[in-house]
Amino acid sequence: MALWAAGVALGPGAGPASAAATSGPLGAAGPGVVSGTTAPSGSVDIASAPTNVAVTPAGRVAYRQVGRGSPLVLIMGFGGTMDDWAPSFVDRLGAHFRVVVLDNAGVGETAALGPPLTITAMANQVSALITSLHLGRTAVLGWSMGGMTAQALAVLHPSQVSRLVLASTQAGTGKALPIPPAAAAAAARPNPGAVLSVLFPAGQAAAAQAYGESLLEYPGLYLVTPAVKAAQTAAIDKWMAGADAAGRAVGSLHLPTLVADGTMDALDPVANDRLLAGLIHGAQLALYPGAGHAFLFQDENEFVPRVEAFLHG
């Protein structure tokens, strides 16, 4: 989901071919080495945090971090970069946690995977980053496709995940309702208005504008290539069809999980949230009336405290 106007990224959109606001030379660093610069300890300003690159067995992974405390990894969704998190959302979480945001496979300075790209492969790459940063057992919040990756991470690397927050996402059992074709087509368009129309419900123009304008705080611009978007689409389709083994195993998870979404999500019917919450033992379900796929930004004032309370529980 790429949004841009006046040459500046405005919403979930990313790709492998561009020069993010970055990190410094990679040199000949080996696995586990982190290159780049480091933000002041405890700094809570994601828009000015430097981009670093961890060199892992799963390839280079670009990331930023803010805050201090127990770790929280945020995983972006379809076509998104780490610049598509509303800065205020990340900074508020950074007031209580060490928040790490990253670029998915093939996006920005993160190494491509495959072909074919799969949700499992992306989860393994996130795992490699967690190991490289010595995060230990971390909380994970995934949005949309990032929520699929978060589920796979918990299935495949349970020792690395303490708690899950799954936002606007679907189970990988093959039983979730499909993404409505018209909404999917709009989300893939290069037109910012079309993308915002599926992230925010009709009548929420102010929230959509506020979200788009907040992304202007990030200093760099890098966009997704059609090839990466196509690879991500194929990975999502495989996950939702129940053809990714990690997705079929989500019902085996036994860890604190919060499933959340807006009741007017145009990309993910609420029935999918109920299905996912029912699959994971003891999962909590939080639905935000009048909000859509980007509910976590539209209802940030309610959702962030809910996340903080859940992670501290």
What does this molecule look like?
34% of the residues lie in helices and 18% in strands. Strand 10 (257-262), helix 9 and strand 11 (284-288) form a beta-alpha-beta unit. The strands form two sheets. A nine-stranded mixed sheet has the order 3-4-5-7-6-8-9-10-11, sandwiched between helices. It has a two-stranded antiparallel ribbon with strand order 1-2. It has one domain: Alpha/Beta hydrolase fold, catalytic domain (Rossmann fold), CATH 3.40.50. The protein is α/β, with parallel strands linked by helices and 313 residues long. Helix 2 crosses helix 3.
Topology:
Blueprint: E1 3-5, E2 8-11, E3 33-35, E4 52-56, E5 59-66, E6 71-75, H1 87-94, E7 98-102, H2 119-132, E8 138-143, H3 145-156, E9 161-167, H4 181-188, H5 192-199, H6 205-214, H7 226-240, H8 245-248, E10 257-262, H9 270-279, E11 284-288, H10 295-298, H11 300-312
Parallel strand pairs: 6-7, 6-8, 8-9, 9-10, 10-11
Antiparallel strand pairs: 1-2, 3-4, 4-5, 5-7
Helix pairs in contact: 2-3, 4-5
Distance between the termini: 33 Å
Q: Compute the number of structural domains.
A: 1
CATH architectural grouping: 3-Layer(aba) Sandwich
Strand content: 15-25%
CATH topology: Rossmann fold
**Secondary structure: helix percent:** 25-40%
Order of helices and strands: EEEEEEHEHEHEHHHHHEHEHH
Any idea what the shape is?
globular
Number of distinct helices: 11
Which stretches of 5+ consecutive residues score pLDDT under 50?
Answer: 1-30
Largest β sheet strand count, sense and barrel closure: 9 strands, mixed
User: Whole-number average pLDDT?
Assistant: 88
What gyration radius follows from the Cα positions, in whole Å? Answer: 17 Å
E-strand count: 11
**In terms of quaternary structure, what is this?**
single chain
Class from helix and strand fractions: alpha/beta
> Strands across the major sheet, in which order?
3-4-5-7-6-8-9-10-11
CATH class: Alpha Beta
Assign the CATH superfamily: Alpha/Beta hydrolase fold, catalytic domain
